[in-house]
Amino acid sequence: MTKFVASIDQGTTSTRCMIFNHAGQPVGMHQMEHEQIMPQPGWVEHDPLEIWARTQDVIKGSIKNAGITADDLVAVGITNQRETTLVWDKNTGQPLHNAVVWMDTRNAGVVADLVKDGGQDRFRPQTGLPLATYFSGLKIKWLLENVPAVREAADKGDALFGNIDTWLIWNLTGGVNGGIHVTDVTNASRTMLMNLDTLTWNSEIANIMGIPMSMLPEIRSSSEVYGHTLADGPFGRELPIAGILGDQQAATVGQTCFSAGEAKNTYGTGCFMILNTGTEVVQSENGLLTTVCYKFGDEPTVYALEGSIAISGALVQWLRDNLKLIDDAPEVEALASTVEDNGGIYFVPAFSGLYAPYWKDDARGAIVGMTRFVNRGHFARATLEATAFQTREVLDAMNLDSGVELTALKVDGGMVQNELLMQFQADVLGVPVIRPTVPETTSLGAAYAAGLAVGFWANTDEMRSNWGEDKQWAPDADSNASTDLFKMWKKAVTRTFDWVE
User: Fold this and answer.
1) Which of 85, 88, 17, 73 is nearest to 46 (CA)?
2) How much is the pLDDT for 1?
């Protein structure tokens, strides 16, 4: 009988469940968006109960759409938006506050206070991360200091912290009735609370941040059986939960970047480039993050350098939802194609500050170069170009840190269907851009981790054999994207610095 692996992909704007066969091909999928809650500028929240409800719905929908039953599944993997921070009561199962999303900047004061004593890199030797609003530990600290219910529950030992992977697994395995409180090494490496070398919580840093160790989940590998779904849960049977990967690490696994020096770039709400650095921890000197790439069971931990960009696909959504320039996100390509260039404007989307390679929480978005010549098409084109320019900045830092010049870039995520963007990306980078046959690599990576744990895939070689090239874009030799246009972009970026006082 044919068997399959399920993958729950809980992202920033939506949740989906996908079913994959042994060839790594999707056979069924269901996806649902959830509300983006923005109480004030710089604050972004999600309703954890809505996410849990959506997760249950997409599980059932994907099984139905695949034309299979839950008995045809051998395991489920989970991948998630990283750093998004949630605290709930272990006795009631109720969230004590909305989830604070990774791009939220309300904890800028927390960051500033910690920077005063030791600088922005005071915890980088242990965690690989600079002090920035991005990371979970700093969001927990804000919640403890500003939400009385969180502080009270923490003092009683009743508060549980998790990124969304932990929240979903806790609920899938029973919640208040024996739910498992775990995370994996990739998600833990994004909290600023985990030692990269030992893969254990750093009690000294937790103490400095005022975070009780009792709140933190158990750290496990990315590929093992953590527990089983409930028979009366959304799968309708006991099914091994056997893979956890943060979304960008999942995409790296889905792209089968298993060798040191291989890299991928995911174009989603944000944009994230990861370079596999092998089993050695490589500290960045050029504004990148050092992170865990994956750890399969008892095998050695594989590390990575990452360039994180806060806003890419979210900028297209902003054009759609806030400015109403387009009705649907895919329309941006057609609108951008109505003009030959950006009309001289550059859009730096520092809505949540600037991430890699700058790490400036006080930056804010800017559109520069405006004249009366500019029209809707130029706005659309500058929106797409912003993603490509930001990727170039990350790639330059990655080349400096690794000492290896990237010769091609594997790409995935929703925006890779935009051919105008992909060609411009190749022009800006000066290297070929390659899209795989299965672009849903985040979901696929979580499926691979789960399937590997239960023997559905024997090894990484089997996964590699599934990877195939769909399309490749070569740089245009006549383009000035990598020279004159990129120079102007760099100038535009400086205009966003130090905006928030």
Assistant:
1) 85
2) 65
